[in-house]
């Protein structure tokens, strides 16, 4: 039995209760003191991990978040102190640090109190070089993002570097995330959040590494909020004392993160922690902010960049939708027509977004927009055509998986569309990709579950609306002189067709077939012919093949006919695997070859039939050689992966499966010349 | 009017047909119907009209204005519907305008200010980069359509004059393109014309107090990409231009020769090589007692590599002037100019004179016939003063790991502008040819009775052949190195049992030695009485597609090289070769190839393959011969050995 994907989801709703105030606990000392590096730190014993062979490592990375009173509001104060050792020259880049900051509607994050040192051991002496804070560079990335960069001085192999900074933020709804795992090893990573009882946060944990310490202490809390001046009345200081929770998370000896093939985004696999404000309670009444879908939907439906945007009609499309309503009484056909209409009205600018960048009317007039611009336009047009469409919120594969236990809006980054027709399963649609059929989402959207943006907010599985299917059929003839000739037909269906159409669109039919011919170079292909395309059929290419066997007059011919290009579509080269293998969708690859034998030849040996199964119905490989007539041989090979995702425990089986397939496909067919 | 307008649009949407000419009543521009069929062939887009004007206001200021209308024929041409205008501290964008036309040539939309994005072109590598872009996106969902962009950039960095490339990409046709340069009468333009069609040579006039130079091309059909060809910009018309006099942030210079360009750069950076006394003293102590000049240089270079690192900084005049040596001494880092200047200062302290040299790294070589600012990097050149015959040491100062006196593929095999007190001097960087770029492989393969095999493989790579492996070795942990090597092994089924990548013993060029142990399940699967195996374990070379139609471009190969493979295959008792492939020997103008298999007295099979490619440039007329050469090699590389079982 193969375990399903193991993922750690940790939820802690920090509902601070008013009882339990009587006893306050004392948090432990911080794991490092800035500036306290000694010569002894350079000879610290190597831990069990391979960290000293890495280019650099975090000796300690320590962050705290506190909520403090400020002018008329609360703010978040985040402090980070990190100490790294640079082992090799390749690790020098870790001595350059970039700190991105967010700003919006006059509220901002500020970087202050930057300090840093580089420590070198020279002839047994500790030499300390100070970071010149004025050498910090500020860049405005775009209207919402700033970036500060600094680099530590005098860095060599073996240097220990240390830096600390504070970010103060007006964004109480979103605390700073913390990343425990990096592309270099981490000996100790610790995050503490000091949260007063009147704010309640939900925490969301990602990754596959266990915490060494995870605790919550009740501690005393006091702060001062300065109220705003009113007229000539000056502002006054208001002291607040309450209880708070000191949350603490520690990971120890985390090896370097290494991406593997068939992954979504590295962020899905690296250990990290995230926060979302769930509620406030200043007066004794708890106000849930995001905990309930009702509240989220209330906020989204009245948001000018979401719900309200949908309400403003786009007359030309509305008129067109009404025309389609007349023309297509059948709702499925009508939905397909509306989808095609929106697809050819707007170009996707490759920006996955949850909110519109402009009114829908502008999107239509510009013929260009992000995913929310386009798919909200799709929803609106479907509705205008009398179809009950709903926006579908989701997170793309390179944005990361969503958790479905607590509704959190910030985990979504994309809008697609959903259509519910009586007596039919859910229909998922997306107008960002031309030629994408009704009922299929682009590959980037095949990522767990999406949430319907309506009052109910139901979760909808983002299932692939098809498989990745490749089907190849060859008709070959062998001449007595060892000339192989014939035709090959390559067909791509489901997501393979989506990918092929995209390649053709983004180059041209001629370039596509040219590249294909290059892959089949060994078979001296004739000019491939692209069969006229229609969305209902697979993409289909035909090409003539020629191959000359090496020894034309030999008494025996050995033919490894299945050694074709891309005979093994998925290659598992690494010997082991830490994380799930995410294919996105089931896959199916079939090759059928019919070989006409030359006169005077017989098949001496036919390779034995083989059926291989992956455990738990995970997939199958079928190989079969038959002689439908004495003058011909037929070879069939079919590789099926039944599931979109395989767990790391299944990797060994997948790899062994591949090894056997390779061996089988290399077995030659032996033909004998009869005299 | 409005009521009429909407249904028209709806009809247009449903049929994706052209919008009625009645709308707007304007005179059509760039109608697609007017495009000659010859320009649509093989094209994703057609430049309908491009007008570039470069005005030299003074030695310190230039203004470039551009108007470009492109008809986009399909999605692959859609990039031409977007525009990114670069600016920084020394360059300002005066305006950026855009218009979309339908196939009939009528305006359907104007670019609005709100649709223009402004963002940092931060490269994610530099510590600081002041480069920014104004970006516009006018892509449309149905084809064809035409976009027109107009913009103006005022530059206070007039060392760079425009280079005119009217046809800069494959599959782009040009209906009409013109380039105009206007200069003050006392600042005549320097220019070089390349591959201009007949009748396109400069038209030079004097209008009052200005010179006007004008070029024009029209009806250039789209070109298709070819294998092993020079970059497209080396195949299509171009005009290079350069100032005779310029001024960058108060620093005046003349550019009439390599000598004067070098002089300005030398003077701009003069006096910035003063070292703190402590560093000077360290260097003096470091080389004390070392009399050999080369050894002294090596010691200083090793000091540099151990104590500094490269940090990219891309800011304003910083592009020309180095940070002082004292700054590198204090911080331990710098960009290419700063580290090269610092190393020069360190060598000075060791009583060795060195010169900075400008070079165009990682791209085709500069045009030596046209002195102008064509460089992107600085290296250090150290002529050996005490050597019996002329000899030079070359140092790459931005790398902490590059071998002493090695330029590699990054800066080798090209020209560099030496910066001396007497001005610039063009010289050649070291050449790495067939004698230097070698790959020598020896392998032993042990096959068992079931057809499984184990192999030990030792590969020595030298010169340019080792560049990538040296990078692997220095930049990645051993486990990652092994993974990268595994990714390119040409086996479908294998396990690595041993892996070691280490630098070889030093010679004139650096080398890397890779030792691999492999298990190869099913390497030689028995099939009935026979066993098949490929003797050429790792070195297969692919064939090339034949040219479609006449070959247009000359053949440019990357580097000269020589490969040799000796594979010994140890087969189990009870197997004897049924057939051995016939030896192949090819000797051509392109290179030579040989492969042969023989049985050694102890029954071991020995496969020897040799490939030498000493020359890298050939005329286009030789392409079919080259394809044939590659086809023969490809066929010979695949030869199989067939064994029969003798004991059954």
UniProtKB/TrEMBL annotation, chain A:
Cleaved signal peptide residues: 1-24
Keywords: Signal
Protein name stated in the entry: DUF3857 domain-containing protein
The species this protein was found in: Hymenobacter nitidus
UniProtKB/TrEMBL annotation, chain B:
Signal among keywords: yes
Span of the signal peptide: 1-22
Species assigned in the record: Hymenobacter nitidus
Keyword tags: Signal
InterPro entries according to UniProt: DUF3857
Protein name (database record): DUF3857 domain-containing protein
Domain spans labelled DUF3857: 62-223
């Amino acid at each position: 039995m193969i375990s399903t994907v193991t993922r750690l989801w940790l939820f802690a709703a920090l509902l601070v209760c008013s009882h339990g105030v009587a006893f306050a606990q004392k948090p432990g000392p911080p794991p490092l003191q800035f500036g306290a590096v000694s010569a002894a730190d350079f000879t610290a014993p190597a831990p069990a991990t391979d960290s000293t062979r890495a280019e650099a490592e975090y000796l300690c990375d320590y962050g705290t978040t506190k909520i403090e009173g400020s002018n008329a509001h609360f703010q978040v104060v985040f402090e980070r102190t990190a100490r790294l050792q640079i082992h090799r020259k390749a690790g020098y880049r870790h001595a350059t640090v970039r700190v991105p900051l967010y700003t919006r509607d006059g509220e901002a994050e500020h970087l202050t109190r930057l300090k840093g040192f580089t420590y070198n051991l020279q002839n047994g002496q500790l030499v300390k070089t100070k970071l010149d804070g004025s050498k910090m560079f500020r860049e405005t990335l775009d209207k919402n993002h700033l970036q500060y960069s600094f680099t530590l001085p005098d860095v060599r192999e073996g240097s220990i570097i240390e830096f600390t900074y504070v970010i103060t933020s007006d964004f109480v709804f979103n605390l700073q995330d913390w990343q425990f795992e990096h592309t270099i090893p981490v000996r100790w990573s610790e995050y503490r959040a000091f949260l007063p009882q009147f704010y309640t946060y939900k925490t969301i944990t990602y990754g596959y590494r266990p915490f060494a310490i995870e605790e919550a202490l009740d501690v005393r809390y006091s702060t001062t909020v300065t109220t705003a001046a009113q007229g000539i009345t000056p502002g006054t200081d208001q002291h607040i004392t309450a209880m708070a929770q000191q949350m603490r998370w520690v990971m120890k000896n985390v090896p370097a993160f290494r991406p593997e093939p068939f992954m979504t985004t590295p962020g899905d696999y690296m250990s990290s922690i995230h926060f979302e404000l769930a509620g406030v309670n200043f007066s004794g009444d708890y106000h849930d902010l995001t905990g309930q879908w009702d509240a989220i939907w209330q906020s989204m439906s009245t948001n000018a960049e979401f719900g309200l945007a949908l309400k403003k009609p786009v007359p030309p499309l509305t008129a067109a939708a009404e025309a389609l309503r007349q023309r297509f009484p059948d709702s499925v056909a009508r939905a397909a027509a509306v989808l095609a209409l929106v697809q050819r009205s707007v170009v996707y600018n490759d920006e996955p977004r949850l909110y519109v960048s402009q009114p829908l009317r502008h999107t239509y007039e510009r013929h260009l927009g992000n995913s929310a611009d386009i798919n909200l336009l799709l929803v609106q047009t479907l509705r205008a055509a009398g179809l009950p469409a709903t926006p579908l919120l989701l997170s793309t594969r390179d944005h990361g998986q969503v958790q479905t236990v607590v509704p959190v809006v910030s985990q979504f980054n994309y809008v697609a569309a959903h259509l519910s027709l009586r007596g039919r399963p859910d229909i998922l649609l997306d107008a960002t990709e031309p030629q994408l059929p009704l009922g299929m989402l682009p590959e980037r959207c095949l990522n767990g579950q999406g949430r319907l943006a309506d009052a109910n907010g139901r979760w909808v599985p983002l299932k692939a609306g098809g498989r990745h299917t490749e089907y190849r059929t060859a008709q070959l003839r062998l001449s007595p002189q060892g000339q192989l000739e014939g035709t090959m037909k390559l067909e791509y269906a489901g997501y393979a067709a989506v990918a092929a159409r995209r390649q053709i669109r983004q180059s041209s039919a001629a370039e596509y077939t040219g590249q294909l011919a290059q892959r089949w170079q060994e078979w001296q292909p004739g000019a491939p012919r692209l069969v006229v395309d229609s969305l209902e059929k697979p993409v289909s290419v035909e090409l003539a093949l020629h191959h000359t066997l090496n020894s034309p007059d030999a008494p025996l011919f050995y033919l490894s006919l299945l050694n074709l290009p891309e005979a093994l579509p998925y290659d598992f080269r690494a010997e082991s695997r830490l994380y799930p293998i995410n294919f996105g969708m089931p896959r199916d690859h079939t090759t059928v070859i019919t070989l006409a034998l030359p006169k005077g030849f017989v098949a001496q040996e036919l390779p034995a039939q083989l059926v291989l199964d992956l455990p738990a119905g995970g997939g199958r490989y079928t190989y079969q050689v038959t002689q439908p007539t004495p003058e011909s041989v037929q070879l069939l090979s079919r590789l099926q992966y039944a599931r979109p995702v395989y767990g790391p425990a299944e990797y060994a089986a997948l790899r062994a499966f591949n090894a056997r397939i390779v061996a089988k496909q290399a077995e030659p067919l032996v033909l004998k010349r009869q005299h | 009017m409005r009521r009429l307008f909407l249904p028209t649009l709806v009809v247009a949407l449903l049929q994706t047909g052209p919008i009625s000419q009645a709308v707007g009543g304007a005179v059509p521009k760039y109608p697609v119907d007017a495009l000659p069929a010859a320009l649509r062939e093989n094209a994703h887009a057609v430049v309908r009209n491009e007008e570039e004007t470069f005005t030299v206001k003074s030695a310190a200021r230039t203004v470039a204005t551009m108007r470009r209308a492109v008809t986009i024929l399909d999605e692959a041409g859609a990039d031409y519907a977007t525009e990114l205008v670069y600016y920084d501290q020394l360059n300002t964008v005066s305006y950026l305008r855009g218009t979309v036309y339908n196939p009939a040539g009528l305006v359907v939309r104007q670019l609005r200010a709100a649709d223009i994005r402004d963002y940092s072109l931060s490269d994610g590598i530099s510590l600081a980069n002041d480069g920014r872009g104004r970006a516009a996106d006018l892509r449309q969902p149905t084809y064809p359509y035409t976009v027109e962009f107009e913009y103006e950039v005022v530059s206070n960095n007039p060392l760079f004059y425009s280079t005119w490339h009217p046809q800069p990409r494959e599959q782009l046709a040009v209906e009409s393109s013109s380039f105009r340069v206007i200069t003050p009468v006392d600042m005549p333009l320097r220019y070089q014309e390349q591959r201009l069609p007949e009748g396109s040579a400069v038209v030079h006039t004097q209008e009052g107090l200005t010179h006007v130079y004008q070029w024009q091309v029209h009806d250039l059909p789209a070109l298709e990409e070819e294998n092993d060809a020079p970059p497209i910009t080396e195949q299509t018309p171009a005009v290079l231009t350069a100032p005779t006099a310029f001024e960058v942030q108060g620093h005046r210079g003349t550019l009439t020769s390599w000598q004067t360009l070098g002089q300005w750069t030398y003077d701009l950076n003069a006096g910035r090589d003063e070292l703190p006394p402590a560093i000077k003293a360290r260097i003096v102590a470091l080389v004390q007692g070392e009399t050999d000049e080369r050894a002294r240089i090596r010691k200083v270079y090793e000091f540099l590599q151990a104590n500094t690192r490269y940090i990219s900084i891309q800011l304003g005049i910083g592009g020309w002037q180095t940070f002082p040596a004292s700054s590198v001494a204090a911080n331990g880092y710098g960009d290419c100019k700063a580290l090269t200047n610092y190393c020069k200062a360190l060598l000075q302290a060791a009583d060795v004179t060195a010169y900075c040299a400008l070079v165009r790294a990682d791209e085709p070589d500069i045009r030596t016939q046209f002195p102008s600012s064509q460089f992107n990097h600085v290296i250090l050149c150290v002529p050996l003063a005490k050597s019996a015959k002329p000899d030079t040491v070359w140092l790459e100062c931005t790398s902490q790991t590059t071998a002493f006196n090695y330029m590699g593929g990054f800066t080798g095999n090209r020209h560099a502008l030496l910066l001396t007190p007497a001005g610039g001097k063009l010289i050649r960087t070291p050449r790495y040819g067939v004698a230097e770029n070698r790959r020598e492989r020896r392998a032993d393969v042990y096959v068992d009775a079931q057809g499984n095999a184990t192999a030990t493989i030792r590969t020595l790579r030298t010169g340019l052949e080792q560049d990538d492996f040296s990078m692997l070795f220095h930049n990645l942990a051993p486990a990652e190195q092994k993974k990268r090597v595994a990714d390119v092994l040409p086996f479908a089924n294998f396990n690595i049992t041993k892996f070691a990548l280490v630098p070889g013993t030093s010679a004139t060029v650096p080398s890397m030695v890779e030792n691999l142990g492999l298990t190869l399940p099913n390497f030689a699967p028995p099939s009935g009485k026979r066993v098949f195996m490929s003797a050429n374990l790792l070195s297969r070379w692919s064939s090339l597609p034949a040219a479609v139609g006449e070959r247009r471009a000359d053949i440019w190969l990357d580097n000269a090289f020589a490969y040799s493979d000796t594979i010994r295959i140890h087969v189990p008792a009870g197997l004897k070769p049924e057939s051995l492939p016939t030896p192949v020997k090819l000797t051509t103008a392109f290179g030579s190839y040989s492969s042969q298999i023989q049985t050694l007295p102890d029954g071991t099979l020995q496969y020897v393959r040799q490939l030498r490619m000493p020359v890298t440039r050939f005329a286009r007329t030789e392409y079919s011969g080259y394809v044939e050469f590659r086809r023969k090699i490809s066929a010979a590389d695949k030869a199989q050995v067939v064994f029969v079982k003798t004991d059954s």
